[in-house]
Amino acid sequence: MSSHRILITGASGYLGGTLLARWKDAGLPPFDKLYALVRTDAQATAVQQYGAEPLRLDLEDEKAVRESIADKKITIVYFLIDAIKSQAQVFLIRALAQVKNATGSDVHFLHKSQIEHTPFDPFKTAVTTNCTVIEEADRYGVRSYIFAPCIVYGKGEGFGRIISRQTVDVVRAAQASKRMYKVDDGRPTWPVCHVIDNTTLYIRILHKILSGEDPGHGRNGYFLASPGSVAWDDLYTAMAAAMAKRNVISDDTVVSANEHILEQMAEALGCPPQFVSVFVGGLCTFTAEHGKELGWEPQFAPEHIIEYAEAEVNLILDNL
Fold it and tell me: Which residues form the NAD-dependent epimerase/dehydratase domain (predicted)?
């Protein structure tokens, strides 16, 4: 049996919860123990049904992080929580390095990159955090893996949050402005992924690690879970039709946003008007080659998000 001990953060969240829910049926190679970071008694009870031992830990307390990770000899961390700064990630990386020094085992840090709702440039924040993770991990001999952001959709399977963030932003912006608006010129596209396919890539990488293989780490450890991209205009149109059907908006046509509308959308999204397109638009040309090299095969085609749009909107409206 592998001596690896694994910690999942964000177990009550959309991505972490779905990962935990699929854990028992993932067919992973043997490992020593699974921990899940929790904040409440209810969460502690919930994670145990998936075979995880609850762990209470303040990730902003470096001393507590080092002591807890070292005491439990945790060697793999899935960082799936929302964090604007990179402080918690750095603390965990340093703690993993301490475990490596004490045990001689390889240690691994898997980081979910994200675009944050911040008052400053969110892309710059995400890139800076990713660079910090890679540099700190390299400095301390920790193998790091970065998951690039895409539009994740579908019903989460965990015990906590079951709705995405990216599609929720589209709904909230349309609700606030009483109509579906596009925020870019042309027909920009963005990678999409069903939450189940996103989870299977998490699992595929972990399978490689537990098997003693190197899936690619550090500067060669960027991953994107996506079968392909869709045009924002097509997603807007499909979601607008669903929202009009629910009488959330009165008109299902999609038009370009002006400055006044961008201000309304920005207020709903909690960002400056100039960054609205970061959350509900933009162009991304990333392709998901790395995961496929590991044998990852997505179940859902990119066009599925358009076909699923009504179900996605209903799920969001019923769970906001």
Answer: 6-80
